[in-house]
Design goal:
The chain starts with a helix and ends with a helix. The chain has helices spanning about 1-40, 50-80, 85-90, 95-140, 140-145, 255-260, 260-290, 300-325, 335-365, and strands at about 150-155, 160-165, 170-180, 185-200, 205-220, 225-235. The relative contact order is 0.10. The protein has a 6-stranded antiparallel β-sheet, with no helix packed on it. With about 375 residues, it is α+β, with helices and mostly antiparallel strands. It has 9 helices and 6 strands, in the order H-H-H-H-H-E-E-E-E-E-E-H-H-H-H. The protein is elongated and about 110 Å long. Helix 2 (about 50-80) crosses helix 8 and helix 7 (about 260-290) runs antiparallel to helix 8.
Length: about 375
């Protein structure tokens, strides 16, 4: 039995790791592209992208591991049914109940990992992301400049360009600045051969001092422009939003336990629900992995995925309903877990029970 158990778990884990790796690559790539787009717009610095993705990794993993386990069981056991390995195991005395028991034991480490990610590691990672993004919001426009690129600042009212920027981000060369007035009609254009950052020691204010350039004020499409040449021209560098924005997922689980806010309680139930998904989808997957060799290897994947999507979708609906006060907290999301637990139990034990009932009726009829 020990050899069979290790063989079954190895097959499931190999499939789970492969599927989870592919899903992680897809989802993290999509998120990375969004952050990369923000870096290209100048909203965040490109230097923090890898740090943000590293801190976001546990949040992706807590959602992908249950799905990876679910698909891993479907693929591993489905292949074993097609290649008659399950028939051989049944002939050796391995019942469906024993197969389910061994698979559930193998899913316990996955459940523990998901629980650790959901309750502790993922909120900590999101808190770090929150701090990084708040620092980026407070960063000055000067620090967000990227050489050789037109960047929009000030809610799109100002466009800045520099040909080159020193490593310490204190010296610029080839500066171009275009800024629209508050009404959106007038425009101010400045260009300069070079620029440098100056900090007022008394007030702490920072200025961009442009050298050897000119300023042009007017209305686009008209010829009446005010032109000013200068040897040195100072511009105050405005910082980003100084208020901190707290991300919902960055709240610690301990705080959620003590909070009476409905949204906090719903988030707590969501975090507790993620590890509970693991044994329930294992129960579902063991039964749904059974496939007829004539149906093909992937025939069972579509209905199985529909079941999983429905499960996750109902959990999201239950979380939102609880946050809105439509569902009492003592029910929370338990009704969704209970519903699919009963479905898994029926799929696993219902058909054999019906078969025994039919045989008993036939025996009674013949008697």
């Amino acid at each position: 039995m020990g050899i069979i158990f290790r063989y079954l778990i190895r097959q499931v884990m190999i499939s789970m790791v492969a599927v989870s790796g592919i899903l992680l690559l897809v989802f993290m790539s999509g998120r990375f592209i969004r952050y990369l787009d923000s870096a290209a717009e100048g909203s965040i610095s490109a230097d923090v992208l890898l740090s943000i993705m590293a801190y976001r990794f546990p949040g992706f993993l807590e959602l992908i591991l249950p799905l990876g386990l679910f698909i891993g069981i479907l693929l591993a056991y489905g292949r074993m049914y097609l290649e008659s390995e399950m028939t051989v195991l049944s002939a050796c005395g391995i019942s469906n109940g024993q197969l389910l028991q061994k698979t559930l034991l193998g899913s316990i480490p996955v459940m523990v990992i998901v629980a650790a990610m959901s309750l502790y590691i993922s909120p900590w990672g999101m808190k770090q992301v929150e701090q990084i993004l708040n620092e980026q919001r407070q960063a000055t426009e000067f620090e967000m400049l990227v050489p050789g690129r037109f960047q929009s600042f000030g809610s799109g009212n100002r466009v800045t360009y520099t040909e080159a920027l020193s490593d310490d981000k204190r010296e610029l060369r080839g500066v171009f600045i275009a800024e629209y007035g508050k009404s959106g009609e007038g425009v101010t254009i400045m260009n300069a051969r070079s620029g440098s950052q100056f900090v007022d020691e008394e007030t702490g204010s920072r200025f961009l001092v442009l050298k050897d350039g000119g300023r042009f004020d007017g209305i686009a499409g008209e010829l009446d422009y005010d032109t000013t040449a200068f040897e040195a021209y100072g511009l105050k560098i405005r910082s980003g939003e100084e208020r901190e924005k707290e991300l919902e997922k960055g709240v610690s689980t301990g705080y959620l336990w003590q909070s009476d806010n409905l949204e906090d309680r719903a988030l707590l139930h969501w975090r507790l629900s993620l590890p509970l998904i693991v044994p329930i989808v294992t129960l579902l997957a063991v039964r749904l992995s059974r496939v007829n060799p004539r149906q093909g290897r992937f025939f069972h994947l579509l209905p199985a995925m529909l079941v999983y999507i429905t499960y996750l979708g109902l959990l999201i609906v239950a979380r939102d309903a609880m946050a809105d006060g439509k569902v009492p907290e003592w029910i929370g999301m338990l009704w969704v877990h209970g519903l699919f637990l009963m479905l898994g139990g029926w799929l696993q034990f219902g058909p054999p029970w019906l078969h025994r009932r039919r045989l008993m009726r036939e025996e009674s009829a013949h008697a």
